[in-house]
From TrEMBL:
Entries under CDD domains matching the protein: ABC_cobalt_CbiO_domain1
Protein name: ABC transporter ATP-binding protein
Entry keyword set: ATP-binding, Nucleotide-binding, Transport
InterPro entries membership: AAA+_ATPase, ABC_transporter-like_ATP-bd, ABC_transporter-like_CS, ABC_transpr_CbiO/EcfA_su, ECF_ABC_transporter_ATP-bd, P-loop_NTPase
Top-level taxon in the UniProt lineage: Bacteria
Pfam families registered for this protein in UniProt: ABC_tran
Similarity section: Belongs to the ABC transporter superfamily.
Protein source organism: Anabaena lutea FACHB-196
ABC transporter domain segment(s): 20-251
Length: 254
């Protein structure tokens, strides 16, 4: 991990044992300036990392590149040494659990229980085992009473927790979450933090505007601004550096 620095990309060397390695990633939506310009970083086993950045800075775009939903114009992403490309996506998605910013993108079955059992059933887990596990996960998130209801009958926060249950059911070794606390009250934000801190995963990467919550769940922060990773540092000193956060469009008291 580097210390607080304004341009860490120059100091990143190749880390062949990295869990996630991003090398010189460039991503441009059609006919626009690049949203991501020469992004490079490595995440290692045990890293719990916050991805911070002002609205529209490119956090979701970066996360969607990491799991192969978007394809960079140049650069490369390796997950546990495997290049992320169309032919490796089945292998990548066995390792990586990803929740979308919009939980509705993840819940498409007639009931929540079927959503949570869908992934394990696809990987050949028996119905009885998949259902047991799903009911346990739904209970962990206070959703046991909703198991046989449709996602449309859940609140926004409940949908977000249900979407997280769908990916935890697959026991991913890497967790990538886009705005996991949006719509959650303080008690559920705390509970979610406790759940995440106990998970036996290699790496957690979380994009969020919920800076105080990120400070409880992650140790390291990457800050996106102007299409680049402007900061790669321990999160606690950064959260106390109101001036730097303000300059990056992340005023801490707002
Ligand atoms: N499908 C798209 N087509 C064109 N431009 C897009 C598309 N999706 C996002 N963008 C643009 O890319 C930029 C980055 O968007 P992105 O959603 O990655 O930002 P973000 O940091 O996740 O924002 P937020 O904090 O609001 O979730 C924005 O300027 C946005 O307008």
């Amino acid at each position: 991990m580097t210390s607080l620095t304004s341009n860490p990309q120059t100091s990143i060397s190749h880390r062949h044992n990295a869990v996630i390695e991003v090398q010189n990633l460039v991503y441009t939506y059609s006919h626009q300036e690049p949203v991501l310009k020469e992004i490079s970083f490595s995440l290692n086993a045990g890293d719990r990392v916050a991805l911070m950045g002002a609205t529209g800075s490119g956090k979701s775009t970066l996360l969607e590149n990491l799991i192969g939903l978007k394809h960079p114009q140049s650069g490369a992403i390796y997950i546990n040494g495997t290049l992320v490309e169309p032919k490796t996506l089945p292998q990548i998605r066995k390792q990586v659990g990803f929740t979308f910013q919009d939980a509705n993108d993840q819940l498409f079955m007639p009931t929540i229980l079927e959503d949570v059992t869908f992934g394990p059933r696809n990987y050949g887990v028996s119905p009885a085992i998949a259902i047991d596990k799903a009911l346990q996960l739904l209970a962990d998130f206070g959703l046991e009473a909703y198991a046989r209801r449709s996602a449309h009958e859940l609140s926004g926060g409940q949908r977000r927790l249900a979407a997280l249950a769908t990916i935890l059911a697959l026991e991913p070794s890497i967790l990538i979450l886009d705005e996991p606390t949006a719509g959650l009250d303080p008690a559920w934000r705390r509970h979610l933090a406790q759940v995440l801190l106990k998970l036996p995963v290699q790496v957690i990467l979380i994009a969020s505007h919920d800076l105080h919550w990120l400070g409880r769940v992650t140790q390291r922060a990457l800050v996106l601004s102007g299409g680049c990773i402007q900061i790669d540092s321990q999160i606690q000193p950064l959260l106390q550096d109101g001036k730097t956060l303000d300059q990056l469009g992340l005023p801490v008291d707002w």
